[in-house]
Amino acid sequence: MSQALQQNGHLQMVRHQNMEAKAQALTPALFHHDVYPQGVVSAVQDAQQIHGWRADVAASVQDFFKQDFFQGEHVIIDFGKHCVGYLEFACEAAGSPPDAPAHLQFIFGETLAEVVEPFSDYSGWLSSSWLQQQDCYLDELPHHMRLPRRYCCRFLRINVVALSRKFQLRFTSLKLDTVTSASLAQLPTCSSNDKQLQRIDEVAVHTLKNCMHDVFEDGPKRDRRLWLGDLRLQALVNDVTVKNYDLVKRCLYLFAAMTREDGMVSANIFVKPQLIADDTFLFDYALFFVDVLQEYVAVTDDRETLAELWSLAWRQIELALERVAQNGIVRDSADWWSFIDWHEELNKQAASQGVLIYCLSKALILARDYDVSKVSLLEEKISWLKAAAQRELWDAQSGFYTSGESQQVSCASQVWMVLADVGTPEKQRSLLKRLKSHPPKIQMNTPYMMHHYVAALLQVNEMEQATQEIKNYWGAMLEYGADTFWELFDPKRPDFSPYGSKLINSYCHAWSCTPSWFIRKYLL
Amino acid sequence: MSQALQQNGHLQMVRHQNMEAKAQALTPALFHHDVYPQGVVSAVQDAQQIHGWRADVAASVQDFFKQDFFQGEHVIIDFGKHCVGYLEFACEAAGSPPDAPAHLQFIFGETLAEVVEPFSDYSGWLSSSWLQQQDCYLDELPHHMRLPRRYCCRFLRINVVALSRKFQLRFTSLKLDTVTSASLAQLPTCSSNDKQLQRIDEVAVHTLKNCMHDVFEDGPKRDRRLWLGDLRLQALVNDVTVKNYDLVKRCLYLFAAMTREDGMVSANIFVKPQLIADDTFLFDYALFFVDVLQEYVAVTDDRETLAELWSLAWRQIELALERVAQNGIVRDSADWWSFIDWHEELNKQAASQGVLIYCLSKALILARDYDVSKVSLLEEKISWLKAAAQRELWDAQSGFYTSGESQQVSCASQVWMVLADVGTPEKQRSLLKRLKSHPPKIQMNTPYMMHHYVAALLQVNEMEQATQEIKNYWGAMLEYGADTFWELFDPKRPDFSPYGSKLINSYCHAWSCTPSWFIRKYLL
C-alpha cells in the first residue's frame, strides 16, 4: 500500500537490537534468472485496451540486434512478462568511429502506457522519482553496462536521444537479470480444474514472486518496501505456495526491531541502507502484527519466535483497546489513521472495530495455547466489542452497519463485521447477500479490500459466489493482459488512481496475490 | 578543434602494433587534487557580462551544507576556477524517513550560461550528448556517490527535481576529484614583469593543465581527444612549462599506430576503449606531424624516436606534394579538407600552400641532421613552392596574396605566407602592416588562427605589436572572467559559435594556451 502522508518526525522511536540481529541473520539469498527480449512492439491507440494502448508486434528480436539506430529513433522491447531486475546491455557504434558520447534514455514500464505517455506530463501527488527512467551518456563504444538500480517492467523503451551524424548505434546484447527470494522449484501444483482459476493462480504466484526480495515488498516498482498490511496477505499466499517461512519470520522481527516509544509497531519498514521504521502508524496495520504472528505460528509451530514476539503482539492489543470508548466502540476522529481501503470518502470506524475484534480473536488463539492468563480478558473484550458493534452500529432501517458520526454505509464496514464474526452466521450470510443486492455508494477500490470481501464470503460458506467474485475481478485484469495483479483496479474505471496518475500505480502488488490462497486453501 | 564532418567509413586503415605498444607504455599517471565549493551563486541577467549572465554571491558554503532542499529547489555552486574531474557528494534526508527515491539533476558548466539556459533549447549541430548533465535517482539515503563520468566545470547546478512531501535533502559533502597528467610542481617562473601578461600566462598554463590527461586533449569538455593541430600548439607550451615530453612522444606514437592504407596520419585519435584513428583527414594537420616531430626532437634530442618516426613524417610530405599542381600551387577543390581556421567562407588554398612550405622547412631541419639524402629535394621543392606562391597568388593591386578561384583575400592566407617565409623579410613585415591597416573581410575566428598571426608578427620582429595583440585578444577573455582560454573568441561577437550554440563551445581549449609560449619563449 501507500498511505497518505503522516509526518511524525517528532516521535521517539526505540531500537531493539536483539530483534534486529535476528532479522538480519534471516536475510535471504536472491535467486537470479536471465530474461531476454521476446520482441519489439509498437504502441497503437486502442480504446478497448487498458489505458487505451495496444502493443502490436513490430519486429523480431533478431531484427532488433541488426538495427542501426540513428539519433532520435526509439524502440519498445517486450520481455513477454512482468520482470523485476537489473538491465544489462552492450552496444557498439556503426559507421565512423564515435566522435561524441551516445545519449540513451531508458524508460521501464510495467504497462505500455508508462513507456508511451511522457513522464513530463505527470502530475500525480506521489513523487515523480518513482517513474522508472535513466539517462545514460556513453563516452566509449563498444560499451557494456549494467544499470545500478533495480527496475520493474514488462516493456522497456530505449530512446536514442543523441549520437552524432557520424555514427549509429547497434545493440549487441540486452537482458534483465531478474531477482527474487522466492524459489518456485518446489511449488505445489494448483488443484483447481478450472482453466481461468488456474491462470489466475499462475499470475497471482508470479505477483507474489516478484514482490519477494530481501523483504516481502508491497510492490517492486513502488513503494518497494515492507508494509504490515501487505505482509499479512503475502504470508498467507506464501503458506500455500513458496513456503519461505524464514522470510515471514524475518519480517516479523523487522517490525519488532524498531517501535514507537510506547511499543506500537510502525506501518512499514525501510531496510536500506539501515533499518528504519517509518513514522507512519495505522490502527489496523499495527493490530495485524497479531494476525501475522498467529498465522505464522499456526503453520510453523515456531514457539521460540512466539515466545519472543508475544509481548509485542500483546502491546498492540493494549494500545488498540485504549482507543475504545466507554460505549465499546473504537473512537472516530479527524486526526486518526486506519487504512482499510484506498478510498477518500470511506469512514473507517466500523471497519476498524471489525479489525480489532478480528485480531483479538487471533490473540485469543495464541493466548489459549501460550498465555492462558490473557484468555478471560480477551473473551470478555471480544464479547463486549461485538455487543457494542451490534448495538451502536447496526441500522435496522437500512439493514447495514453504519460508521462514524454521519452513519456512513460502506462495503468495508459490512465485510469487516462479518470477518469479526459479529452477529449469527445466518445474519452474516444475509448481510453479504444484501450487500450484493443493495450495493452502498461507498464501494471497494482495491484488490486488498476485495480480498476481505471474498474472505467474508468464504467464511459464510458462499463458495460459489466467492469463486465468481474472484473470476469477475481478478479475471478482468487477466482480460486486460495483466501478468501480475495490480495495486488498484476498479473495473468501471480502469484508469483510477488515488495518486492522480495511473502511471504511478503499481501493477505488481503484493496485496493482489491472494486468489492463490483462496484457490489452494479452499480448493476452489 | 572540431572539424565539420567527414564520413570515410569505407577507408582501409592499418594498425602498426609496435607503435601502439610504445604509445601504451607511455600512458601517464594522473595527478589527483580535490577541489571544494567556494560559494553558492545566483545568476543575474547583465548585458555587460559574457553571454549576458553575472554570478552574484548568494550564500556561503557553510550555508549550503546547512540547507534543507525541498523538491523543486536548485542551487548553483561555484568552484572558483575551471576544473576537470569527478564529482563526489554525499547527502541525507531531513524530516521523515525518505519514502521515495531522491531525483537529482546535475548540470556542469564551464560558463554560467550552461547552467542557466536550458539544454532543452539547444539546437546546435554538434551532438547534444556533449552537454554535461546527469540525472541520479537515489534509492537509499544517506547516500555517497561518485559520478562515473569526468566533467568539466566551474559551475555546478543541482536541481532537486523530486523528493516526496515527507522529507527534504541535505548535502553533507561535495567535491571534485580533479585530474591532470600535468605536474605544476616544477613549473618555471614566468619571466614577464607585466601584470596582465603574468595573468594571461597563468590562465594559459591552467588551460594546458586541464587539457592534459592520458593524451593532450583538444578540450576536456569537447571533443576530449587528441587532434594533431592542437597537439602541435600544446607541445610548444609544454616545452616551456610542464615539460612532460613523454606525453608528446606518446601522442606522436599514437598517430603512428594507425594510419590510412597509404600512410596518411589521421587528424585525430580515439584511445578508449581501444585505439582508433578517426576517419577524418586534413591536409594541414597531417603535415603538422612533421612539425611536432621536429620540435620534439629539437628539445629532447630523442634520436631513437626520430629514427622510428621519420619515415612516417616523410610519407606526409610525399602525400602533400601529390596535391601540388604543375604550376607549383596546392590544388583547390570542393571536396578537399584543410582546417586552417573555423571559418565557413575561408578559402584554404593559399594558407595550405603556406603550411606545406612551412612543414617542408621543418622537414629540411630534420633531414640535414638525420637524412641528408632528402636535403636537396626539399630545398628544391621549397624554392619551387615559394616562387609559385609569389607568382601565382600575389596580387599587386590589392597588396595581398589571394586564394582559390575567387581570388579571396583573407587574414589566414597572409599569415601563412609569412610563416612560410615567402618573400623578403621586409615584404613580410609590410604585408602584416597592411593586414592591420587594410583588414580584409575574411578575418580570424579562433585563438588558433590568432596564434599564427602572433607567431608571424614575432617572426618579423614586431615584438611590441605581438604583445599588444596578445593583450587585446587573450586579455579580453580575462576581462570576461575566463580562467581558462576558449576555443572560440571573436571580441565583436562574444556569443559566436560555429556549431550553432555557445553552450557547446569549449571554454578550456588547448589551442588557446599559446600565450605562455610567446611570453616565455620571446621574453615578452
CATH class of the domain at 31-180 in chain A: Mainly Beta
What is the fourth-level CATH superfamily of the domain at 31-180 in chain A? Galactose-binding domain-like
End-to-end gap of chain A: 27 Å
Strand content of chain A: 15-25%
Question: What is the CATH-assigned architecture of the domain at 31-180 in chain A?
Answer: Sandwich
Could you estimate the helical fraction of the residues of chain A in percent? 25-40%
Label the structural class of chain A: alpha+beta
Number of E-state strands of chain A: 16
- CATH fold title of the domain at 31-180 in chain A: Jelly Rolls
Most extensive interface: A-B, 47 and 47 residues
Using the alpha-carbon principal axes, give the shape of chain A. Answer: globular
Subunit arrangement of the protein: homodimer
Number of helices of chain A: 15
Let me know the largest β-sheet of chain A. Answer: 9 strands, antiparallel
Instruction: Provide the residue-averaged pLDDT of chain A.
Output: 96
User: Low-confidence stretches of chain A at least 5 residues in length (pLDDT < 50)?
Assistant: none
Give Rg of chain A in angstroms. Answer: 25 Å
